[in-house]
What we know:
Chain A is mostly helical. Chain A has helices spanning 2-19, 25-32, 41-59, 82-98, 102-107, 114-130, and one strand at residues 37-38. Chain B has helices at 8-29, 35-44, 49-70, 82-98, 103-112, 116-139; one strand at 2-3. Chains A and B meet through helix 1, helix 2, strand 1, helix 3 and helix 4 of A and strand 1, helix 1, helix 2, helix 3 and helix 4 of B. Strand 1 of chain A pairs parallel with strand 1 of chain B, so a sheet runs across the interface.
Amino acid sequence: xxxxxxxxxxxxxxxxxxxxxxxxxxxxxxxxxxxxxxxxxxxxxxxxxxxxxxxxxxxxxxxxxxxxxxxxxxxxxxxxxxxxxxxxxxxxxxxxxxxxxxxxxxxxxxxxxxxxxxxxxxxxxxxxxxxxxxx
Amino acid sequence: xxxxxxxxxxxxxxxxxxxxxxxxxxxxxxxxxxxxxxxxxxxxxxxxxxxxxxxxxxxxxxxxxxxxxxxxxxxxxxxxxxxxxxxxxxxxxxxxxxxxxxxxxxxxxxxxxxxxxxxxxxxxxxxxxxxxxxxxxxxx
Lengths: 135, 140
């Protein structure tokens, strides 16, 4: 059942990204171009998603375990540290350079565009490089 | 300020679906639908490997369903500069790994959990993304 849930969640996530045109880097750059000709769409995507997930997650707060797993796997870190700050700033720069973040980058592989493939290979290379230093 | 290409309805509907996916993964499997972590863990983590792999398969299945049943054309406009793609991919990989999340994990899931770390992360990557696009527009 857990495997099925993962497949269904991934599929709905990918469909949502595509319907919202978030798989299109130009659309994302249009959102980040707040000081130029601005496309506010991405804010509506985040708003729609949070309006659905926040209340449900809030209601689930006192539940001891999810439906099909033994426990919730939530991030252990609670404090704002240097890694979070530096990492998020660098991620934003990479995001702004091309207009791709991990979700849309993976989903756009369906389009067989060489640019997404190059982007993903480089992203995976970075994961591999940092892996030994991070638990 | 000029507003262009604004598609509020499809953006909102797509957002609702993403929220639904987050809810299913959380309520069903107790997990955060953060894509950078899921991709990373598919490669490096021994636990939940099948779930992570299937989530990614789903992420590819979603746009495929869209192509077949909704619209065969998915617009995709991206730079073809190889150095730029390599640098951007590297920064996204490096940044999300040490920062423990991306737009989905921090921006959607983390904010939905009212996580202080995720709210800070989202403000920071939105900020540096906006500044990056601004600088490119000025100098390029």
